[in-house]
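quick one, 575 residues, struct below
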Amino acid sequence: MTETVMEEGEEEQNVGHHEKWKGGIKTMPFIFANEVSEKLAVVGFSANMVSYLTEELHMPVAKAATTLTNFGGTASLTPLLGAFLADAYIGRFWTIAGATFIYLIGMSSLTTSATLPQFRPPPCSAGTAHPCKEASTWQLAVLYFSLLLAAVGAGGIRPCVVAFGAEQFGEAGKREQGRTWRFFNWYYFCMGASMLLAVTVVVYVQDNVGWGWGLGIPTVGMGISLISFVAGYPMYRMARPAGSPFTRLAQVAVAAARKRRLKVEMEPGLLYENDEIDKGISLAGKLGHTSSISFLDKAAILTEEDKQAMKPSSCINNVPIPNLWHLSTVHRVEELKSLIRMAPIWAAGILVITAAAQQNTFSLQQARIMNRRISPSSSFQIPPGSMTLFSMLSMLLTISLYDRLLVPFSRRFTGLDRGISFLLRMGIGFALSATATLIAGLVEVLRRQKSADPLSVFWLVPQYGLFGAAEAFTSIGHLEFFYDQAPESMRSTAAGLFWLSISAGSYVSTMLVGLVHRYTNWLVDDLNKGRLEFLYWIITGLQVLNLGYYVLCARFYTYKPLRVRDDQLVGVELK
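---
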């Protein structure tokens, strides 16, 4: 964790008087409206997507499951592109606005295809050799095109909304910092509330009114969010793009490779510094030197050749500028070091997503063939897609209890404003996720044994509830970790890495399901004839191994030090 020692009044020196009133709490409704609509759209469809693919487009269950996870993976991969555009060229505001417009087009196309019958295969006809005809190639093409636009739109919204919202509270002062960390809880709470609305109201409309209305509602919401987000433009605090972060990382790597034969024998304080060229990427403070990954320090060794290459004509405020492909500053070297140190923690989050992905595929299929009546005398049946309601409720309850009870209680012992470290928060989430997967397998064994007299669907509530609690710990901890430990100028990129882990988890799920389906008969359309629990056992075992790996990574993780004033290094390691 990094803590600044700046006085709150110093923030006023960094911005003009006309900027003082910008940002803060008043911008949150505009920003959250965009995130709520995006989640209402994607969850309103993905929570029940397997039903649409199997019942409307007549896809086999395994193909529908992989289509769903591939969409989720792609929608979580595109944030890297959106983050790059925001950090390097057009800024977060315009990235969010443009991406929302693209998302709106994709959702409109999807709604149209679900409304007009010519975009779907004919209804199944009983009593024939092939009662159900799968969607044609062109019908699937319309579906995939719509999903692609939605994935591209999500790529601009997801990495930027988090960083854009957090930067509305600034960097200076304990009060502002406290609001920044609470923002992550607010963000996830609003996101969870919109997901809750999606898996109840929207899914109910899809199952009982029609897919045209079920997709039209989030489409209209997306249009409203675009208007509201743009309307808040005069009030936003906006950071200027600092140039391509990937170019800076490449420059450090190339400079270190060029000087690989040099030895780092000098004192760290003698490594190259240049406040002028680092000014735009270190507004909150410069990164201090760390002894880890010392090979990269060679990029900051100032040689005679570097001195001769600095031409008087290439100066900023009379400070000569070097060829950055030959010489980098300590701050830029530490930017690359920070990302490298974050990589093992990032990788640990992949299997948590792999486990959670089953809740929208096979767990939904389990719910479909269980007793979904609320009570024996009730005729109302819970829509399968609405089972994720219990995940959402658990997540919202966990976030509320965490913010109101756990943080104040643990703060007495840790002295941390956020209560517990984000690394500990993530670890708790990993353990809960493994437990949820284990319970899912046990419930499936019992469900199949009682298939003649179907179990109540409420037997699935414990696994859904634990997955919701796990997400409240893991995902918010992940967001805090990336925002805090990423270099200041790469925070959109860091949020993109968060979504990249979700993408990787979705693709690992696709690969795992594909391998199991290919080499076993565990995953068949009739779950009563399969052995779904074996898939859950495999994922549980992988998660246990992953938890041990994560504990080691967290134990030896080095936190970035931030130099905020008079070369003072501030960096507190959270154990």
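The first strand starts at residue 286 and ends at 287.
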